[in-house]
Design brief:
2 copies of one chain form a homodimer. The first copy, chain A, has one domain: Phosphate transport system protein phou homolog 2, domain 2 (Methane Monooxygenase Hydroxylase, Chain G, domain 1). By secondary structure, the first copy, chain A, is an all-alpha fold. Chain A contains 6 helices and no strands. At the A-B interface, helix 2, helix 3, helix 5 and helix 6 of A face helix 2, helix 3, helix 5 and helix 6 of B.
């Protein structure tokens, strides 16, 4: 096909579509990583934890691939205005996604350690927190591909719920540790898992904030500082 | 002056210089934030902690300013190859810098809480860890502006030292908690501060990895996964 203007426009649209599609695929892999890490925790499944750690390289590989694709499109097409912002937003979002993948790996590492000791207590709030974080992640990416600021704003509100769960888990584990110092080592590991999930929710919040900035050109990040409230 | 080609090239060079300069200025502010948060911890200086929290909006404002500048230069100049990569690298780096700023705020929040209780122990390893993290930050940004991959690689090695200090602090505080449950609440807060510093070092490592990628086009991130070793 000749390199007519219409053809170039069509190619460019196809490239933007491909970027969005790959970001969603990366998001899907990351979401699966979170789900598996929590399944491995609840079911004390050492093999699943190990497999999830191994699979992280697929996430990392796809992040690099999208990064390269974005650079290529920037260089070849020299987009302006909203297309430019879409691509630079994608470049930022995939960094958050890759780090969420790292958090799932961290959960799995703690699971491997916890599986060498006897169980401390059944997990109730941690799976709830993980589900909330996964939903936030999914919504923030849907907001990205659809330029949906309402959905992005919803994510910011949900982050408060995750923070509250994290505080609740912290208080409960503190009580365990105070009452029986033998639980300290295990309680700390569970506490770290709770922190990893809180950070996953923070990354989803970051994505949602970047999306609002992409669409409205308005900075909503930093208006409410991300408080670490252990 | 007429908009000759030479003039445009000169303007573009000036813009690239400005981006680098602003990234360094942002880095300086962030470094100061870390230093002040640890000074506030060691000297139990509540006012300094509060002032550092307040000053975070300057960091956030400068990040947004650089982000806008990068987008503007991308749209106006449509740079190729290494210039393009420099700008997209800057876009990524400032996200890490802004989040390091948030970590310093988190340190200060824990300081405010710790100052309401009696001191647990003198701080020795935490200031050492903070100094190492600050040095890593400075080196990673120098590596960015000079395209210096040797310096960037040095940062990766230094991260191991910070991780080791973090593990050491963890073990020591665990002993405190085991021996006297009354120390648990304070020890946890100090432990979180140690984690924040470890995350600052991780962000500096991320910056260094991105710089190597910028210069060599070679991915060195993810070859050694960033292990959370509490």
């Amino acid at each position: 096909m000749p390199d007519t203007h219409a053809h170039i426009v069509k190619q460019f649209e196809e490239e933007l579509r491909l970027i969005k599609e790959k970001v969603l695929r990366l998001g899907g892999l990351v979401e699966e990583g979170i789900a598996n890490s929590i399944k491995a925790l609840v079911e004390r499944d050492t093999q699943l934890a190990e497999r999830t750690i191994e699979n992280d390289h697929v996430i990392n590989g796809l992040e690099v691939e999208i990064d390269e694709l974005c650079l290529k499109v920037l260089a070849l097409r020299q987009p302006a205005a909203s297309d430019l912002r879409l691509i630079t937003t994608a470049i930022k979002i995939i960094t958050d996604l890759e780090r969420i993948g790292d958090m799932a790996v961290n959960v799995c590492e703690r699971v491997l350690e916890l599986n060498e000791e006897s169980p401390l207590k059944p997990y109730i709030d941690i799976p709830r927190m993980a589900l909330a974080a996964q939903r936030m992640l999914k919504e923030s990416l849907d907001a990205f591909v659809n330029g949906d600021t309402d959905l992005a704003t919803k994510v910011l509100v949900e982050d408060d719920f995750v923070d509250e769960l994290n505080r609740q888990i912290f208080r409960e584990l503190l009580t365990f540790m105070m009452e029986d110092p033998n639980t300290i080592s295990r309680a700390m590991k569970i506490l770290f898992i709770s922190k990893y999930l809180e950070r996953i929710a923070d990354h989803a919040t970051n994505i949602a904030e970047i999306v609002v900035f992409m669409v409205k050109g308005k900075v909503i990040r930093h208006t409410k500082p991300q408080q670490e409230s252990y």
